[in-house]
Write a structure and sequence with these properties.
Layout (H helix, E strand, L loop, with lengths): L2 H23 L3 H26 L2 H16 L12 H27 L7 H21 L6
Length: 145
């Protein structure tokens, strides 16, 4: 990956991460999910291209993980309230899956030479936001509608 491509991807990744931060601050689920969705959309094609170039399975596995996040974060206009305990439990499980995927992202960032270490910051932000949302759900501070 060229330095120019890496710079462009870094800027775009920063912007979509900020979209998720905005969503959490404004309590707008659609923006939180949109940021995650777009971030995944950046990772999957790039990792697939790296896999086809090198044949290295780590790229295929990384693409697979972020494809799962891509599916989880696909923005839909579903509404539910705190009385729907099944929906609340599923949201918590989905957030936990996002945390695990992005913890893998942090680990990959530090263990794959081609990736700059600051990419771990983006994954850390997604982990922190998801953790914060789980805590707020648990405390009853979030009413999803």
């Amino acid at each position: 990956m060229t330095q120019t491509t890496l710079l462009i991807l870094s800027i775009i990744a920063g912007i979509v991460t900020l979209i998720s931060v905005y969503g959490v601050i404004k309590k707008e689920r659609k923006f939180f999910l949109l940021g995650l969705f777009l971030y995944s959309f950046l990772v999957v094609p790039n990792e697939l291209m790296a896999y086809f170039d090198s044949g290295n399975m780590v790229h295929l596995m990384t693409a697979g993980l972020w494809a799962v996040q891509f599916i989880i974060a696909f923005p839909v206009k579903a509404s539910y309230d705190s009385s729907n305990t099944v929906a609340y439990m599923l949201v918590k499980k989905m957030l936990l899956a996002i945390i695990i995927i992005n913890l893998c992202g942090i680990s990959l960032t530090y263990n794959v030479e081609a990736l700059p270490d600051f990419f771990a910051l983006y994954h850390g932000v997604f982990c922190a936001l998801s953790t914060l949302l789980i805590i707020k759900f648990h405390r009853g501070e979030i009413v999803a509608e």
